[in-house]
Write a structure and sequence with these properties.
This protein is 70% helix and 7% strand. By secondary structure, the chain is mainly alpha-helical.
Length: 140
């Protein structure tokens, strides 16, 4: 699918270029010889550049034991870009999940301590005791 749209785009560019060339060629009869020579040289250079742009893939890239053909316009596609971003998204999702779990755990511990303080019948001197947290965490 990508190849046919690329071919169609190239064909449209080629037709557009030919229409402009025809339009410019119609007005060259009234130009001086030096100007027509410069135009001819520019056309030759443009055609040479155009021909080098249409070279088939001829470079072989080897990485991790795999070989692939690359050409002048072979850049990373949509799936390659998505595959490059996917590990970053997984890392961010994992960090968010860890943060949520830790917050829930902290809230649960604080709720347990508060519930134990409110439901227990202890003398006020017990709250000042350094081993009071150990008492709350231990099973009675």
């Amino acid at each position: 699918m990508k190849n046919t749209s690329h071919t169609t785009a190239l064909a449209q560019q080629d037709l557009f270029g030919r229409a402009i060339a025809a339009r410019l060629s119609n007005g060259t009869t009234d130009l001086p010889h030096t100007v027509t020579e410069r135009l001819r040289a520019a056309r030759v250079q443009a055609l040479a550049r155009r021909k080098t742009g249409l070279q088939p893939a001829s470079e072989v890239a080897v990485s991790a034991g795999q070989a692939s053909l690359t050409g002048p316009d072979s850049g990373p596609g949509l799936w390659q870009r998505l595959a490059a971003v996917l590990p970053l998204l997984a890392l961010v999702a994992g960090l968010i999940a860890i943060e949520v779990v830790q917050n829930e755990r902290r809230a649960s511990e604080v709720a347990e301590v508060d519930a134990a303080l409110l439901t227990d019948t202890l003398p006020p001197s017990a709250y000042a005791d350094p081993g009071f947290l150990q008492f709350l965490k231990s099973d009675r």
